Amino acid sequence: MPPKTPTKTPKPIDHLITKPLSWAGVVKKSPISPKKSPTRASKRLRGEGPEDDTYDTSGPENPWDFKREVISGHTTEGVACHKLFKVHTKTNVMKLWGYYANRKAEHFYPGQIIRGTDATPQTFIQIQLDDRYTAPHKEGPIHSKKRPMVVLWKTQRELFCLPIRSLKNSRENMGKEPGRWQEFFSITTSDDKNWKGDTPWAGRPLIFEATDGKSEKLSPRTYVELTRPVSVHMRSELSTNLGRLSGGDYCRLMQAYAYSQALHKEKAFEEYGQVAKLPDGMAWYEGTESAMWKQRELKMDKKRPVVVDRKTTTYRLAWFSACRCI
After folding, report:
1. What are residue 19's DSSP bridge partners?
2. Counting Cβ atoms within 10 Å, is residue 164 exposed (0-12), middle (13-18) or buried (19+)?
3. Coil, strand or helix at 300
4. pLDDT tens-digit map of 290-308
5. Range 104-319: architecture per CATH
6. How far apart are CA 205 and CA 181, in angstroms?
7. pLDDT value, residue 199
8. How many C-beta atoms lie closer than 10 Å to residue 222's C-beta?
9. Which pTM was predicted?
10. Is the pLDDT of residue 231 over 70?
11. 252 in Cβ contact with 297 (< 8 Å)
């Protein structure tokens, strides 16, 4: 009989018997429990697919079960946009996985009201478990929704905005936090000008001026949050032209924002034992404005956004008598 060929002990396959764990920038590997074979635990390694045709989202997704699909078209303002969908190969369920619109800075102007994505960590413990704006994420629970915002200024790709909130879930706690109302500026619709607002320190409420005489679900009696600016990518999925502030109200909002910033800078310097006084012209108490800001407000109120290109709806600010304004 021929001699038996000695059997070799197979070398362990590292990526099958270990799994990466990472935290604080450190990557370590911990062994998978020896009670379960890696090949038995993975349908992909066994060459098998799901047991049924249902799209189970409760566990980790197998990338082999999906395909990419890109659909191109145009936004409401007429610019090219591309949508990436994640499509389940068995159920054909599609999820929007990426969005790109070829917008540029000319599509926006200071004081414009848009509706963009505002995503924050979910810290409201009383939230309902079926809340459609909350979702688990690898980095923690996230609350994300489309929110009206006022564009303060624009960069090459970003819009620096202040969000507009209803404060429905926060009003009952506002009285428990002294100074909390000073972080907001009341704002309402043009048919509600008699409302005095809840922020007397800032003077009368700001007024929405809806585009084409109508608004896209702009609620009256809401609040601009001065202390939590949001950077919105201008090429993201958003509604670009819900309305605007007049030049004068935009000026008042910018004054309030600068004043709020200055107050918080003062407090920060005080913690270091230093004094940082408000610059001249920044003093603003109970809605009174400096002469410099008042003069600026009157001048800015005479400018309106003008449509430069109706095909792609781009704008510039011009004197009211210069040409047809929106």
Report:
1. 30
2. buried
3. helix
4. 677 778 788 888 888 888 8
5. Roll (2.30)
6. 13
7. 92
8. 22
9. 0.71
10. yes
11. yes
